[in-house]
């Protein structure tokens, strides 16, 4: 049910220069989703009456992403006046005139802060009607650089002191400002009007609103978060890596508790959108990425990366790189297979060692055991493609299809020059280059009699080890 008394402001106007990247900071991937997508998902889960996202740098790219993830969010462009205070001020000005509830302010670069934690935070703020604002605090291991929460002798909130302005005693405080706030709208609006840029950075700071509220005699609370990692922000790639590792550990543990065997959590990565059934086994060095789904009893890994793949029940995929591939029930893949988009392997089929596939439909029980390339091809059921087979699908201008029937047996080291069709039950001889269609039940071979030139080595390579061995062989 929509919380009619809640508005959420998502701060996403920062430039993110410390990422040193052409990609906007908030669009860097984290567990398969852009950083800001995690924050927008949390905002959506809280079901607020209003969500406002404040943008500035890389505005168009971020606006497109916000429109996709949270289309109901109102977009507000921050003007030339810098600072989080100014961003919130403009967002508040965009709220409907009849709204008079609470305003939750969250940052687009704090992706691990979940809806349950924020719901408890909002509830704590609403416990006392006289509280004008509530600050989310935390107790991280390293407090360097953070603003400190200073409390009075009775434990009540007194003020926030920035690290650079703190005394030695204040720097010894281990409770920090997490940068997440809930304000009563009327109190927030009154103090936003008093913000100035009279500081070294020339910015309007949202933290100054807390000081102004306290100076006006308003009550402010600070509520600690249960785990400090929930409010970890991302400003550079090192922090992105740390956050990714923490989130992945949570994801992996969640799947373990749901009945998935993960042999080595430290080397296993699972994206948020991936889906795993119970009794799946993930071996070391496995990455389950994108919207990959893995059915019951499948074994994935070791050293396997699957992106947007569908793995059937009881299938085995070993040392394989796969993208947009479908693997059927009981099928086996690898080791050292490369599944490109459009690969479809039927039930009990096999794609073996050093096999590459692309736009290939391989039917039930059919096998491509080793050392082959299968591109733009359809293989029927219970056929076997011999070792070292190449589907020559490209004529230099266009890609052409090959159709292999059911119960076909092709010899080793074949080349199928597309477009080509091989009928059901046909055979092809070893070393055959197939340029013409093969009828059902036929044997296709290239007739080229073998010619042995007796004495060639001794005549043309005299004095070599080969010539000596040949002369001494007695053959």
From TrEMBL:
GO molecular function: glucosamine-1-phosphate N-acetyltransferase activity; magnesium ion binding; UDP-N-acetylglucosamine diphosphorylase activity
Region listing for Pyrophosphorylase, in residue ranges: 1-237
Region (Linker): 238-258
Region (N-acetyltransferase): 259-475
Signal sequence extent: none
Catalytic function, reaction form: alpha-D-glucosamine 1-phosphate + acetyl-CoA = N-acetyl-alpha-D-glucosamine 1-phosphate + CoA + H(+); N-acetyl-alpha-D-glucosamine 1-phosphate + UTP + H(+) = UDP-N-acetyl-alpha-D-glucosamine + diphosphate
Enzyme kind, highest EC tier: transferase
Residues where UDP-N-acetyl-alpha-D-glucosamine binds: 11-14, 25, 78, 83-84, 107-109, 147, 162, 177, 235, 340, 358, 373, 384
The record's free-text note on cofactor binding: Binds 1 Mg(2+) ion per subunit.
Cofactor(s) named in the record: Mg(2+)
Residue ranges constituting the MobA-like NTP transferase domain according to the UniProt record: 9-135
Principal location: cytoplasm
Gene Ontology BP term (one): peptidoglycan biosynthetic process
Entry's localization field: Cytoplasm
Residues annotated for Mg(2+) binding in this entry: 109, 235
Subunit architecture: Homotrimer.
PANTHER family in UniProt: BIFUNCTIONAL PROTEIN GLMU (PTHR43584:SF3), NUCLEOTIDYL TRANSFERASE (PTHR43584)
Function, as annotated: Catalyzes the last two sequential reactions in the de novo biosynthetic pathway for UDP-N-acetylglucosamine (UDP-GlcNAc). The C-terminal domain catalyzes the transfer of acetyl group from acetyl coenzyme A to glucosamine-1-phosphate (GlcN-1-P) to produce N-acetylglucosamine-1-phosphate (GlcNAc-1-P), which is converted into UDP-GlcNAc by the transfer of uridine 5-monophosphate (from uridine 5-triphosphate), a reaction catalyzed by the N-terminal domain.
Sequence similarity: In the C-terminal section; belongs to the transferase hexapeptide repeat family.
Official protein name in the record: Bifunctional protein GlmU
Organism per entry: Cryobacterium adonitolivorans
Lineage: Bacteria, Bacillati, Actinomycetota, Actinomycetes, Micrococcales
